[in-house]
From TrEMBL:
MF terms in GO: ligand-gated monoatomic ion channel activity
Coiled coil spans: none
Family listed: Belongs to the glutamate-gated ion channel (TC 1.A.10.1) family.
Ionotropic glutamate receptor L-glutamate and glycine-binding domain boundaries: 239-302
Record lineage: Eukaryota, Metazoa, Ecdysozoa, Arthropoda, Hexapoda
Keywords: Cell membrane, Glycoprotein, Ion channel, Ion transport, Ligand-gated ion channel, Membrane, Receptor, Signal, Transmembrane, Transmembrane helix, Transport
SUPFAM superfamilies documented for this protein: Periplasmic binding protein-like II
Name by which UniProt lists this protein: Glutamate receptor, ionotropic kainate 1
Highest taxon of the lineage: Eukaryota
GO biological process, one term: detection of stimulus involved in sensory perception
Signal sequence segment: 1-23
Annotated compartments: Cell membrane
Transmembrane stretches, start-end: 355-376, 409-428, 448-469, 650-668
Species the sequence originates in: Papilio xuthus
Topological category with respect to the lipid bilayer: Multi-pass membrane protein
Length: 699
């Protein structure tokens, strides 16, 4: 046998777990001719499958009863095709197969076997094999199946299998008179709904070593579903699924509904849309303590729904419980955060320059004022020295007159340190000096200092103009590091999301996971965000919808109508924080449409979905769904940068500070006059000039 296989270059992988396979099966097999006819039929079927050219290998699973069919003579008649051969014991429970059988099934799935020949005498054993293979995805349900007809395969508890395994041919032996044996080839009635009793549909007859009708045994049954109605469970989630209202009627729309309508028109089926009974509380659904699932996921697991729409992401949970189509887009998932309440309008005067710039300006002011003072004192001292050496000016009176004359040349501006700083500060404010000072060094320094002042003032004015002309800058959270440092609580839907953050590879993500709260009501989450103590996690489009919905009390998204009613409590919400969407994305998650587990509709639906994306229909539908939201989300303050009293708050604060300091100094002067000057024994209110002359002489 092995030599014949090698000569045909047939790759035969044999996994034997027979147990009692060595029992005498001659007592069981009484009708040898039946087995010979079955052998010829299997040869024709294998050749028919192999001729299609899309089979990586063929998996054969049989028991000792039919083991003699697969002898060397069979392989002499086959085309070259690799085999994975599995023999199971008659007593083996295939709902919990032993290790060797399990490994063989895994190997067949890994090798990509496109055809399964399950030739088992015990129909109950075959049903348990199919149940196990479907539950743990060890059998490729979209492959081609050839099985022996057995009434035990069609009981009501197994009807769900025949909504998944549709490319199947059942072989039923008929012993006609005069030894004219023949086989009836039938299949499941897909896409027709299975009622209480499953009745197979005949597709071919095999007699006298040939097929009678020469029909395509494995025609694609999903190309035309003949108007069959499929149940579609949906969850409202903008922009994937949107409930719209037109007058009194309610309609379900959105990107995924448009995609489904297009696929339905091509595959010829109808949609029956409905929501799960616990959609408001459980949303997409999660695993319950009793092992079942709630929400949308529960409808898919129990088989109530054929398709699920509602922004399903490529996560481990969804991939395990359902079949997801190819992604039609990738969404940015981030946080909806509050903006800071702090208003920096009072700092308008100091905003044009940063801290270090202000320090540099102050240092230059003090240093330059001191230099002016030093140069002025030097010139005054020089003039005094010249006056003392003059022969015709020896008296003290002439000295005083000379000092007044020299100081009158502009040096009195900088003769005292306080006046020097004051006039230096005045030049910084582009205030001209009352008189040009004498002394070329002071004049040159004044000229260059004026150039410095012009450059500084122009820069300050330009920056000030930009600050007053542009909207007030917002203090926002835009990175994960800023979110962690803000100490506010984070939250979102589902235990899976919290697990995603806790299992993050970076410390920032783990910190977010530690403070992550599970919240199922997005409206309640937004109320916490506006209070400034919460950040809500979802995709950017949905967060934009929540922001618009918060801004408007009632929003109805429709392609033709949009009814918006302003919030009647806007007066109460003015002090609430604005909502901001983080610019950094936590992750870009692929989004798909969900089919029930091992659905036969997925391959062809993926083809149409890929075409929809390639021609740009998704972009068009997405823009239509988000157009009204994007229009309402425009911030008026970002468009109209008008001057108002709030922006000039800094000027009024500066004026108030000047009033306050002047008042304090004025009160101090009055106190000094009444409590110090008037209490002096030498004070004479009728001769105050003499009092000050005598006082100056003492100093």
């Amino acid at each position: 046998m092995s030599k014949r296989v090698e000569s045909l270059r047939v790759k035969l992988l044999v996994f034997l777990e027979i147990g009692s396979a060595h029992a005498d099966i001659d007592n069981i097999l009484r009708d040898v001719k039946k087995h010979k006819e079955l052998e010829h039929l299997i040869v024709d079927l294998v050749n028919l499958v192999s001729m299609r050219g899309d089979q990586a290998c063929v998996a054969v699973l049989c028991d000792p009863v039919y083991l003699n069919i697969f002898e060397g003579a069979l392989f002499d008649k086959l085309y070259t095709v690799p085999f994975v051969f599995i023999v199971v014991a008659e007593h083996e429970d295939l709902l919990s197969p032993n290790f060797s059988t399990l490994e063989a099934m895994r190997h067949a799935r890994k090798e990509g076997c496109g055809a399964y020949f399950i030739i088992l005498a015990n129909g109950l054993q075959a049903s348990r094999l199919l149940t196990f293979g479907d539950r743990y995805r060890l059998l490729d349900t979209r492959a081609k199946y050839i099985m022996l007809h057995d009434i035990r395969l069609f009981k009501s508890s197994l009807h769900y299998l025949w909504k998944r395994i549709v490319n199947i041919v059942f072989l039923r032996y008929h012993n006609a008179p005069r030894n004219k044996t023949w086989f009836d080839l039938s299949t499941v009635p897909f896409p027709n709904t299975i009622r209480e009793v499953l009745i197979t549909r005949r597709i071919e007859i095999w007699r006298n070593g040939k097929f009678h009708y020469n029909t395509d045994l494995f025609a694609d049954k999903t190309k035309n579903l003949y108007g069959e109605t499929l149940s579609v469970v949906y969850l409202e989630h903008v922009p994937s699924v949107v409930n719209t209202k037109s007058n009194e009627t309610k309609k379900v729309g959105g990107v995924e509904i448009e995609i489904l309508n297009t696929i339905a028109s091509k595959m010829n089926f109808k949609l029956k849309l409905y929501q799960s009974t616990d959609a408001e509380q459980n949303k997409w659904g999660q695993k319950l303590p009793n092992g079942s699932y709630s929400g949308l996921l529960g409808e898919m697991v129990t088989g109530q729904a054929d398709i699920a729409v509602g922004n399903l992401q490529y996560t481990t949970l969804y991939l395990e419980m359902t079949d997801l189509s190819i992604p039609y887009t990738s969404q940015c998932w981030t946080f909806l955060t509050p903006e800071a309440m702090s208003d920096n309008s009072w700092k308008t005067l100091i905003l044009p320059f940063k801290l270090y710039m202000w320090i540099a300006v102050l240092m230059v002011l003090l240093v330059t004022g001191s230099i002016f003072y030093g140069l002025a004192k030097y010139y005054i001292h020089l003039m005094d020295f010249r006056g003392k050496t003059a022969k015709d000016r020896s008296t003290e009176k002439i000295k005083q007159n000379l000092t007044l004359d020299t100081r009158a040349g502009g040096l009195y501006l900088f003769g005292e340190i306080t006046n020097s700083i004051l006039y230096t500060y005045g030049m910084l404010l582009v205030v001209s000096l009352p008189k040009l000072p004498s002394g070329w060094s002071i004049r040159l320094l004044t000229g260059w200092y004026w150039l410095y002042c012009i450059l500084l003032v122009v820069s300050y004015k330009a920056s000030m103009t930009a600050i007053l002309a542009n909207p007030t800058p917002r203090v926002t959270i835009d990175t994960l590091k800023e979110l962690v440092d803000s100490k506010i609580t984070c939250g979102g839907w589902g235990q899976e999301t919290k697990k995603f953050f806790l299992e993050s590879l970076d410390d920032v993500g783990q910190k977010i996971g530690q403070r992550f709260e599970i919240i199922n009501d997005p409206d309640a989450a937004v109320k916490r965000v506006v209070r400034g103590d919460f950040a809500y996690y979802d995709n950017k489009n949905f967060l934009k919808y929540l922001r618009v919905k918060r801004k408007n009390n009632k929003i109805d998204i429709n392609t033709t109508n949009l009814l918006v009613t302003n919030d009647t409590n806007m007066g109460n919400t003015r002090m609430e924080r604005n909502l901001h969407i983080m610019s950094d994305c936590m992750v870009n998650i692929p989004v798909s449409i969900g089919f029930h587990k091992n659905s036969p509709l997925k391959p062809l639906a993926d083809v149409y979905l890929r075409r929809i994306v390639e021609v740009g229909l998704f972009e068009k539908w997405s823009n239509d769904a988000m157009y009204r939201i994007n229009t309402l989300d425009t911030n008026d303050e970002e468009i109209k940068a008008l001057m108002n009293l709030k922006k000039l708050q800094g000027a009024f604060i500066a004026l108030a500070i000047g009033y306050f300091i002047s008042l304090v100094i004025f009160i101090s002067e009055l106190s000094h006059w009444h409590f110090i000057v008037k209490k002096d024994p030498h004070f004479d209110k009728y001769a105050m000039d003499l009092y000050y002359i005598n006082k100056n002489k003492k100093h």
